Amino acid sequence: MNNTQQATDKVKKRISLTGKTVYIPGMDYAATRLFCAMFKAFDVNAIPNIRSDAKTIELGSKYTSGEECLPEKITIGDFMKVVLAPGFDPEKNVFFMPLSNGPCRFGQYAPYFTHILKKHGYGNVQVLSPSGEDGYGSFAEKDSNSLLRTAWTALVTADILRKTLHKIRPYEKMSGTTDKVFERALERLEYILSRKDYSTMKKHRAVVSALADINKEFMSIPADFTKTKPLIGVVGEIFCRLNEFSNSNLIRHVEEHGGECWLSDMCEWIWYTNYEEKKNLAYAGRTVSLAMLIAKIKHYIQYTDEHRLYNVFKNEFVGYEEAPGAAVGLMELAAPYFDKYTVIGESILSVGKAIHVYNKGGDGIIDISPFSCMNGIVSEAVYPLVSKDHEDFPIKSMYFDGNSSAAIERDLPIFMEMARGYMKRKNIQRTYPWYFNRH
Ligand code: SF4
């Protein structure tokens, strides 16, 4: 048994959080902020670890072996900044690292961090790794169902806000206006999600109502909606595509080069894991079982909650509809290139989303991956064929290692020219939402 395996056994699934501060890894800026606000309603002081910088990479490199993927290096680097800060008290602070059983290195984050802490003399620092199996009981001892449902509201809302930001910002007349509206929206939603006096449904309804105002505010931003900007789908590994620090702010660079981005959502992955849950129950001969019934009820509630939130933006998201059936729809699109029973994970979703963006009249795809991550390597292998089968649709894989943005500086201008060329010759035209025709 190696050191990391030993540490796996010591990862804590339950820690009393009373009077303590919990640090949450900042995979996505908006989702992490809303997630932490939601915990406050359950008397948990959660802090979003969203300020990655050069020190993050320095410490991430120092405390890892060099073989880890970029998301792991960034998460550990950010946590070590907190551990090494003057006055850090291991009794009063806890680090949140989710566990997973998947084949990728993600499943090793929590035990590996525990191992690193011990090796460097910080064995008393607490790492909390709750799992869905225990209903995240550490966070909400009394009402974990309420916590899980509100977490879903928070994640869907973060997806909607991020999508809206990316749709409006490339067209704004005054630089920075859309970012300001986005920040104000986040603050308002944080306040709602942190309220202790609201029931789960009251909170959900308050978010829906706030989103209606937020939508109006985004729509009132002075902007020049021209139909000349190429629409670029951004797909790839979930942490690297959502975490701006990891991908060197790729989306802002695409915007500076005159493009608009359609970034794959965070919830796409949740829908995929829901599909896997049902598939695994069926494989285990439990198609008719209590577990399957519970899974179906949970997915139905998630679907109706998501629909209510998205419905606020139904006119503004015309032309940006996701594939029918979410992750399942993407897997069907990717089916000619992968066997959906043997290839699992983000590769199949990325390829499916690339074809979906093509079908919606998009102008190109950028696949973002951390350097050496298997998902990006697998999808890159089939992209030439996908492109050939779809009018030579431009698709570019970009790898990030946290140290350079060479891929952006060198490759992005060329890729954007290819996207502009494709835009002129494509056979499938975009459907634009109403505000592109406003005067
Ligand atoms: S998918 Fe790749 S980059 Fe992401 S956690 Fe797994 S191994 Fe790391």
Describe the protein's architecture and organization:
Helices cover 52% and strands 9% of the residues. With 439 residues, it is of the alpha/beta class. Among the domains are: 3-133, Rossmann fold (3-Layer(aba) Sandwich); 225-265 and 322-439, Rossmann fold (3-Layer(aba) Sandwich). The protein has a four-stranded parallel β-sheet with strand order 2-1-3-4. Strands 6-5-7-8 form a four-stranded parallel β-sheet, with helices on both faces. Strand 1, helix 2 and strand 2 (45-49) form a beta-alpha-beta unit. Helix 3 (54-63) packs across helix 4, helix 6 runs parallel beside helix 12 (290-311) and helix 11 (267-283) runs antiparallel to helix 12 (290-311). It starts with a helix and ends in a 14-residue tail after the last helix. Residues 1-7 have low confidence and may be disordered.
Number of distinct beta strands = 8
- Beta-strand level of the residues, as a percent range? 5-15%
* Overall helicity: 40-55%
At the fold tier of CATH, the topology name of one domain is Rossmann fold
Mean pLDDT, to the nearest integer, reads: 91
Taking all Cα atoms into account, the compactness measure Rg is 22 Å
Question: What general form does the structure show?
Answer: globular
Helix-strand string:
HEHEHHEHEHHHEHHEHHHHEHEH
For the record, give the distance between the C-alpha atoms at the N and C termini, rounded to a whole number: 68 Å
Query: Ions, cofactors, ligands: which are bound?
Result: iron/sulfur cluster
Strand order of the largest sheet: 2-1-3-4
Low-confidence stretches: 1-7
Structural class: alpha/beta
